[in-house]
Design goal:
single chain; about 500 residues; alpha/beta; 5-stranded parallel beta sheet; 21 helices; 14 strands; globular
Length: about 500
């Protein structure tokens, strides 16, 4: 067994790919907030390819701001910033590579000034983000910057030391402006429609409250490119660590296991240049929206569509429901009858082939992705992935029956018990308010749809309310499988 460190790279199993570049010569020009599994399976992997191809100007400095990031700080320090990325194809083919693109890591509470100095340094050209859907403080219903988290609110109230991502970004941009240093690009890599626009709204909203002139400068000078990112990456578990240890002989405290599929469609708009990402598999385009709508409304919304119904029926893993003809029929019905009609033409994409590939990806038992992972903060995810489909279908008179059933399943899921009586894996920042809303269903069917932070004015639509109420009654009376079967046969 070999502990993963820079000194051990030459001793690893020949089946494991390792960085062939001199990591000591890499210039760190990207700062990334939110070094989790997805970042390490996606952006950091693409940057590792860039470095391997000979362009050594684009290393990553990771930054953590949350208490949970302490563990990542300690692991990366012990492993010289290295980790093992294991990818598995639908046919079971597995590859392992040690990724070397994270050359620094800063835990902000340890030394906030070190983070600000890194961000303000003229060497920093891009600041990228994976801070989740809820990390921007932008209201789903109104599109306005309305932060709720304590760290952002404290920074806005005049905290002398930033504690939030937005606080660090805006203070660093203030310093760059004062020093006459050109601003960095802010690159969101989160699964949000128009993620660049959302990041811009958040940063400008914060800056304008601190200093309107700074806000005007950011508005005029800072690039916020949109991007579409895609790679299914389950949470690292002890089973993941054991696999890397037993199969590859590597003692890695925080490896990543993802599917082999990868996609990154990126708007080519950067303030201070960019890595040659187009040479390592990234698709650079003028307009990301058709691609992101495809991904968000087909892949991400399908995760929501399968997960609540699957959990209620007793399933645990994504592959369980996606190898079940009843569920795959339901998913394909949602995709073709409700989601695809809301899409714009997607250049270069065969949608039928893309959808078939989705089912193949979802069906991979080797990935062992859990349904519970898909439903964390459903109140953030549903408005971004599923509700835009509902809104457009209502506007055009299209079918919404499957979407309404998903929303009904969410409401039953929030009550806390599966059909077998087991606890549902509910994890949502709005859980207390959601459970109050769901409790109202007994006296006022459709009460959850009145919860404005999720539904805005959409819940008042009579056709949606009728479909939702009928679907919820069927779930209560007959269970998930029977309700799906009845819908499929109607």
């Amino acid at each position: 067994m070999t502990a993963l460190t820079a000194a051990a790279l030459d001793t690893l199993d020949a089946a494991v790919e390792v960085p062939g570049y001199d990591r000591s010569a890499v210039r760190t020009r990207i700062v990334h907030f939110g070094v989790g599994g997805f970042h390490r399976a996606h952006e950091a992997m693409f940057l590792d390819r860039v470095l391997s191809a000979g362009s050594t100007d684009w290393g990553i400095c990771g930054v953590g701001v949350m208490p949970a990031d302490l563990a990542m700080r300690d692991v990366l320090a012990a492993q010289d910033g290295l980790y093992t990325l294991v990818t598995t194809a639908p046919d079971g083919t597995t590859r392992a590579r040690v990724i070397g693109s994270i050359t620094e890591y800063l835990y902000a509470p340890d030394d906030p000034e070190a983070v600000l100095a890194k961000l303000a340094d003229s060497e920093t050209r891009i600041v990228s983000l994976t801070i989740t859907e809820g990390g921007y403080g932008v209201d789903d219903a109104t599109g306005a910057f309305t932060p709720q988290d304590a760290a952002t609110l404290a920074d806005l109230a005049g905290s002398p030391v930033p504690a939030s991502v937005l606080g660090f970004l805006v203070e660093a941009l203030r310093r760059r402006r004062a020093a006459g240093t050109a601003p960095f690009t802010v690159l969101s890599c989160d699964n949000i429609q128009g993620n660049g626009h959302v990041a811009r709204t958040a940063v400008l909203g914060f800056a304008e409250r601190i200093d309107p002139k700074l806000g005007a400068w950011i508005s005029a000078e800072v690039a916020f490119p949109n991007s579409m990112v895609d790679r299914i990456t389950p949470v690292t578990t002890d089973e993941t660590r054991a696999e890397v240890s037993e199969r590859f002989g590597i003692e890695d405290r925080w490896p990543v296991h993802s599917e082999s599929f990868e996609q990154w469609v990126l708007e080519d708009a950067f303030t201070l240049g960019r890595p040659p990402l187009d040479e390592v598999g990234v698709q650079l385009v003028d307009d990301v929206e058709p691609y992101e709508l495809m991904k968000l409304r087909l892949l991400n919304a399908s995760h929501q569509a399968m997960s609540y119904l699957g959990i209620l029926s007793g399933a645990t893993f994504v592959h369980e429901v996606c190898t079940d003809p009843l569920f795959t029929g339901f998913l394909l019905g949602y995709i073709h009858e409700e989601a695809i009609p809301t899409l714009r033409p997607v250049p270069g994409i065969d949608l039928d082939a893309y959808c078939a590939q989705l089912i193949s990806r979802f069906s991979s038992e080797a990935i062992r992705d859990t349904l519970a992972r898909q439903v964390v903060d459903g109140s953030d995810r549903l408005p971004k992935f599923l509700l835009p489909v509902v809104r457009e279908q209502l506007a055009t008179g299209g079918d919404i029956r499957r979407s309404a059933l998903v929303l009904a399943a969410w409401s039953v899921f929030l009550e806390g018990r599966t059909e077998k009586g087991d606890a549902t894996p509910v994890a949502d920042r709005r859980l207390d308010d959601l459970r109050v809303a769901v409790a109202g269903e007994a006296q006022h069917p459709g009460a959850l749809l009145d919860y404005a932070p999720v539904f805005g004015d959409l819940g008042a639509d009579e056709r949606l309310r009728a479909a939702y109420v009928d679907a919820r009654a069927a779930l209560r009376a007959d269970g998930a499988r029977a309700t799906i079967a009845a819908l499929q046969s109607s």
